[in-house]
Amino acid sequence: MNQDIVIVDDQCWQAAEQRITFTAHWQGRLVSCYVSKHRLEHMTGLPLNDEAGILLAFESVRFDIEELVALKIEEEEFAPDGGVYL
Half-sphere exposure of 74 toward its Cβ, with a 13 Å CA cutoff? Predict the structure, then answer.
């Protein structure tokens, strides 16, 4: 678990975009983050078909996601909108 980046407990499935949106707290700043359903399926090795399963999959790889977000932030790989996309 990365102590510099903390994922806030505000995960939300966005069906139209096929992604989960969540917030990371980093150096006193809130950063909007997104992880695609495809990425979650790749990380878990499972087909994800419903919102409940997708959110459970997110929780199962939460610390891995936290590390990926930390790497992107450290490398300043922000999208034009200031968010981090996985």
Answer: 9
Tokens of 4: 């510099």
Domains in the chain, number: 1
In this structure, what DSSP letter does residue 82 have? Answer: S
49-67 tens-digit pLDDT: 999 999 999 999 999 999 9
User: For residue 54, what are its two tokens?
Assistant: 């997708």
pTM of the model: 0.90
Query: What is the span of the domain harbouring residue 16?
Result: 5-85
User: What are the tokens at 76?
Assistant: 């300043």
Residue 33: which region, alpha, beta or left (left: phi > 0; alpha: psi -120 to 50)? beta
